[in-house]
Amino acid sequence: MIKSVDNYPVSTLFNIEAAVVYNIPRYQREYTWGKLQWDTLFEDLLENDPSYFLGSIICINQSLDSLKIQELELVDGQQRMTTLSLLMAAIYKCYGNLELTLDMPQQIELYNLKNKLILKNSPELTRLTPQVQNNNQQDYFWVLKQAGILENAEHISNAGNRRVLRAFRHFCRRIDDVLYQATDQLAALSELIDKVNTATLVKIEVASHSDAYTLFESLNNRGVPLTAIDLIKNKLLAKLESDDAGQIDKHFNNWMKVLAYLGDDYGIQERYFRQYYNAFKPELKHIVSVPVATKSNLIHIYEKLIANDASSFLKTMMVHANLYAQIIGNKEVPDNPKLTGLLSSLENIQGVPSYLLLLLLFSKQETLELKSEHFEKIVTLLIAFFVRRNTTDTPATRDLTKIFMSLSDEATKLKGDAIYDLICKSLVNVSASDEDFIKGLSGNLYDDNKAVCRFALCAIEESVMTRESTVNLWAIEGKQYVWTIEHIFPQGDNIPESWVNMIANGDKELAQTYKQQYVHYLGNLTISGYNSTLGNKSFEEKRDRTNRKGNPVGYKNGLYLNSKLASETSWSVDKIKNRTELLVSKVVELFKLPSI
Fold it and tell me: How many whole angstroms separate alpha carbon 158 and alpha carbon 511?
């Protein structure tokens, strides 16, 4: 079934001397990765040592003649391979933008980078050929032309609003940011290229689609490799059995209490162990000292901590995992429902980087003379900070851990109100301006950051709720929110005739242009508990929709966000713009930062 399986560096998968191309079949989904995945890949490459493992890909290899171009059908891993290709194209583009004289090794490096993305002996052929849905393929070719890699490519209108070109531009900005802070820009680019080249992927080749399907089933239904948390557990229990023979069941049960506090999500478990070290790094430096805990050095850190005193380590983990459970919402904060609610909002706005600071403050509450009021003010401040940060990307993602590690260190030297003042001053100083905040909210917010978009809409609605009218907009059934974002002007590919007539006076091309430009604006969005029943219906049908009992479930459902929509007779681009301006002003007012 499997023809070959090997762990290859990216430089080998994109070998300039090999006539190998990766074709993504038409039936694969379009390119769907967004900013979260782009940043995760970029940060993982930057923060970790060379040869960082990026995952696996599965290819169908039906080539018979090894002397000709070998075409591999990429059936699993297309998102990762496309993103890597776009990152390499961005690096090549940024090389050209430097306008510096290159020495011979640098010229060779640039030449090699180019020929990773196109075939050395057939420069009109790309190493990766995306599938055609949503113009992915044409947009990708256009990116390579923009980067100076491909000579000929056709530009398709509205490419800038689609993910391929947006990913390329995002990586260009991230690289420019790295270069801005570098003393030697060419060296910084070379280091980044080396991180990409040496990163590894397991490539599994099979002979047929049947074999690929069988492999998918096998991978999804059999055991998975040990995680970092598994290895930490094993090292801890082995050390405790050596130090405290005969008590392994007790220690195992205590370890399971730690995981019970954290929940079943492996990502949260791993994050807790990283954030614990980052929060208490100054206190742990006599045992282990690394600049920051990352995925690649996590086991090294905890080997040292366990070897130092396994029993004390496990007791500490139990105490701090319990506190972390309160921060992430797995437990309520004792006797403080208001703080529990605020922490839930911080989770909803993805304020995860601040949890290391909160973990330290929770653990040292008495020593630092912190009261409930202090925590409520601090978390309220963090919510406002992350609404702005996640809208504007200021400060940069890679700086957040450093910011909160520094605050954790400085906070231990202060007491009470002075700690809040320190956090306030520090966060205000690094936050985006109101002008940039407004700009970020006023564009394609839904497409740029769905989490911020949903949080903003819910916050506006919650700000006018009374005790009698309170609705839990964050309620979940199964794994889905009950209340979801509804596009007033529908976002689907096929615009219904009623909407073409209303939004563009019957002009289908103009309606498509309007959809590309405005459909994801805040002013074209609302919240509905019946989104699936509204869909592509006409504006009037959405407005007046009722359920079987005759109760309104459309825009007359009583929500503040829908109050003006309920009386509208039509919808237009101007109304989207005006409503966007109104909602943006409300978000800015709700999440003001204190003056300092």
Answer: 13
Q: For 550-578, how does the pLDDT look when each residue is reduced to its tens digit (9 = 90+)? A: 888 889 988 999 999 999 999 999 999 99
Distances (CA, A) of 487 to 191, 484, 514, 525, 527: 44, 10, 13, 5, 9
**Contact, 144 vs 157, CB < 8 A?**
no
The CB density around residue 4, as the number of other CB atoms within 10 Å, is 10
Q: Which of 113, 87, 108, 314 is nearest to 178 (CA)?
A: 87
pLDDT at res. 68: 78
Half-sphere exposure of 117 (CA within 13 A, CB side): 28
Residue whose entry in the numeric block shows the structure tokens 């060779």: 108
User: What secondary structure letter does DSSP report for 475?
Assistant: -
How far is Cα 184 from Cα 179, in angstroms, rounded to an integer? 8
Dist CA 358 CA 380 (whole Å): 12
Give 174-183 pLDDT, tens digit per residue: 999 999 888 8
- Rounded to 5 degrees, what are φ and ψ at 7? -95, 110
Q: What is the DSSP letter of 108?
A: H
Residue 221: how many CB atoms within 10 A of its CB?
7
**Of all helices (H) and strands (E), which one includes residue 76?**
strand 70-76
Whole-model pTM: value is: 0.76
Quickly tell me which residue has 């940069």 as its tokens.
Answer: 396
Q: What phi and psi, each to the nearest 5 degrees, are found at residue 5?
A: -150, 120
Residue 73: strand pairing partners: 23, 60
* Residue 154 exposed, middle or buried by CB count within 10 Å (0-12, 13-18, 19+): exposed
| CA 574 and chain centroid, separation | 32
User: Taking the alpha carbons of 428, 521, 173, 12 in that order, is the dihedral positive or negative?
Assistant: positive
For residues 88 and 168, the answer to whether their CB atoms sit within 8 Å is no
